[in-house]
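Table S2 (continued). Query chain:
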Amino acid sequence: MANESTVSYSTKGTCSKRLDLTIEDGIIKSCSFDQGCTGNLTGISALVVGREVDQVIDLLQGIQCRNGTSCPDQLAKALVKFKADRNAQATGV
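Corresponding output:
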């Protein structure tokens, strides 16, 4: 059976307010943003689906728009948090 996780992340400092992800065996299966620039965020979502979590973090982390972050950066932050939470569960911390 596949290892599937659903992630909901409240963004900070961006026009989007939340993003939702489905991750299965380290691969992003779905990505959607709540609010923000519809065309850009739909494009970002389409580009990350099917990619490995670590690859998306490497591609998007640190991209700036305003307030010291961006929607792509917030997606990377959500994925970093997902990995940290998963590692904490695995180690029982």
